[in-house]
Protein 1
Amino acid sequence: MRRKVTVIGAGNVGANTAQKIAAKELADVVLVDVVEGVPQGKGLDMLESAPVEGYDVKIVGTNGYEETAGSDIVVITAGFPRKPGMSRDDLLLANYEVVKSATEQAVKQSPDAILILVTNPLDAMCWTALKVSGFPRERVIGMAGVLDTARFRTFIAEELNVSFENVTAMVLGGHGDTMVPLVRFTNVSGIPLSELTDSATIERLVQRTRDGGAEIVKYLKTGSAYYAPAASTVEMVESILRDKKKVLPCAVYLNGEYGLNELFVGVPVKLGKKGVEQIYEIKLQDGEKAALMKSAEAVRELVGVIKSKIQ
Ligand code: APR
């Protein structure tokens, strides 16, 4: 049976996500946006590359939700991106309204879908989608860790002049300035990073990872990153649709794991056809645990702002 993925938000991240899903023939794609003509135009343009690229999927763009009915996955990228000098958190209240409305409409049409959140501030938007959808936590997942680790892996591979593919990294915590790149679990083909370079270099790469999103915003000036965010989202979509059971760092709702409750925080999970099929609770050292708690606190503060607004 053909699979169906809805991508809400036909901007930079959404359009690239849709295009990559089609190019990999993972599913038919429905692209939704509030701006009239944009999803239709981009959808048709993507469809017209099918004969050249050789993919057989349907792609439609729309301003409504009827066409999204029965989606296996709904990816939410709708919202406003960061401008220079803005933190992801500045986006909070504007994007809360967008994600709330997109989730409400999408889940009416696709009650069994798995939701993947991309809109920032990510962890707070995941919380919003979980509460609005009423879905079990296995079916509401945030894309952050895959992107943050991809950035860390890129910087390490460049620094050491080795294949990007050979670098395995781990980044936990919220998708913000307090994210926690875990050096102890980062290696090149199994060789720990600490064996390959000195601690000052590692600290520089860790800091660049934390600032990875801002580095792109500074260059682009009018928006934030989208190629790597889209690629990271598609890795999650593929693991779910193909039931690959990849172990990836994703934002999930913790119910006691890592000593955290009722909060979305990035941790390693197994992604398969049911969504989050397992949460891995790794033993952290004191410093790592403290950094994770600090990151979780930052997420809790944002959710607190939303809670105070909706009560
Ligand atoms: N419903 C559907 N689409 C919406 C809505 C809505 N209620 N509100 C805004 N949009 C659309 C906009 O019309 C725009 O096309 O969301 C799209 C966002 O696209 P861009 O502005 O290009 O932003 P993008 O770079 O794709 O980032 C989107 O992902 O990585 C995060 O921080 C980023 O929160 C931002 C999101």
Protein 2
Amino acid sequence: MTTPIASLSQDELKTLVGQAALRYVVPGEIVGVGTGSTVNKFINALATMKDQIKGAVSSSVASTERLKALGITVFDANEVQSLSVYIDGADEIDAQGYMVKGGGAALTREKIVAALAKQFVCIADASKLVPALGNFPLPVEVIPMAAAQIARNFEAMGGTAIIRQKDGQPLVTDNGQHILDVRGLQITDPLAFESQVNQWPGVVTVGVFAHQKATVCLLGCADGVRTTTY
Ligand code: 5RP
């Protein structure tokens, strides 16, 4: 079910911002591509200018398959030194451009590709804009043998962590690891929080994107696409 915002559905808002992101794609270059339903709209739009770009660096197996199916060349991240722009969605974004990501379990590769890029353009429907991060369960990619220890660390912070399941089994990420989803956290200082959690042994990536925050957000709203630069 989509939640209608004025006359446009959530799906239509995603299409709108996916198309709006095309103006950040630099002709002749390689573009960084994220993961998720909003990014899928962007990939559809990108296909209309595939002959004008060199290709893409992708943040997930799912996006890679979609890009290739539409005839867009996908480069390995190791083949590029930098990107002008990385375009991705978010589960939450605040007024500073700090985000929670990883609802699609692709957070580690998303952070890697984002770190290659000069600009992070976040594309999201209006429901993703929040006053403070922490309502969406925080995804954390972990090495399975450390999961219980990391869950206890989150409990000490007031959170509750569960291992994400798929078909009755722990979900296995593109990197062969597991995801903890953590509820009940108050992330008042995203930069400090990201640094702290990243240091725990067994944490591959925490889904707070503060050091790799958005530089631009294209937010799909009832009155069109609202552009915010941070
Ligand atoms: C995937 C992500 C996505 O960007 C995030 O979950 C938003 O997805 P959607 O556009 O489907 O709402 O971080 O790991």
